[in-house]
Amino acid sequence: DAGVTQSPTHLIKTRGQQVTLRCSPKSGHDTVSWYQQALGQGPQFIFQYYEEEERQRGNFPDRFSGHQFPNYSSELNVNALLLGDSALYLCASGVGNEQFFGPGTRLTVL
Amino acid sequence: GEDVEQSLFLSVREGDSSVINCTYTDSSSTYLYWYKQEPGAGLQLLTYIFSNMDMKQDQRLTVLLNKKDKHLSLRIADTQTGDSAIYFCAESPTRGNTPLVFGKGTRLSVIA
Hints:
The complex is a heterodimer of chains A (110) and B (112). With 110 residues, chain A is mostly beta strands. Chain A has no helices and eleven strands. In chain A, the strands form two sheets. In chain A, strands 2, 4, 5, 6, 9, 10 and 11 form a seven-stranded mixed β-sheet that branches. Chain A has a four-stranded antiparallel β-sheet with strand order 1-3-8-7, with no helix packed on it. In chain A, a hairpin with a 2-residue loop joins strand 9 and strand 10. In chain B, 37% of the residues are buried. Chain B has no helices and eleven strands. By secondary structure, chain B is an all-beta fold. In chain B, strands 2, 4, 5, 9, 10 and 11 form a six-stranded mixed β-sheet that branches. A five-stranded antiparallel β-sheet of chain B has the order 1-3-8-7-6, with no helix packed on it. Helix content of chain B is 0%, strand content 55%. Classes of the chains: A mainly beta (110), B mainly beta (112). Chains A and B meet through strand 4, strand 5, strand 9 and strand 10 of A and strand 4, strand 5, strand 9 and strand 10 of B.
């Protein structure tokens, strides 16, 4: 049984560009959450998707948007990239009280 | 507001016990978690404890919760070099798939 998978593994973009990150939840999980982890920091909650709708959102600007598909996979989109968006982006899926994280996508903005 | 604090570094000798501490501010926290992150990797769920429990043991891991002082600790018995990683404490205000609030992590270094 595959766990949470994310693609791509690494990504390099320049300021002002747009990026799309992808996540497939663990089998049987219908809720997907996205987190941003800056260097030396703990993960920060971006938003959560359930039944194809954004259910909760953290303190992130509207440049960060997402989508969940009928198969529960999810995308994170970031527009107008800033240098400060450079981070590890983590996807998590869960059931009950356990949330499982994917390996992350390392985004570098130059 | 929600805030989770951890000491940043801990160094122990192989075979000794490690104790990683965490304090949190949200008194409504229902579940408290410990995650492990190895270099270049995602987060691995180690264990979690419900707020009505004082202690939970899982093989080499022991979690202690002092709800009055809002203090959580993770003890790793017989620490091995493979335990070297960053350990994150996280709290969740409700049950289910609710957003986790993380500390900044404690970097554990195990000296052979």
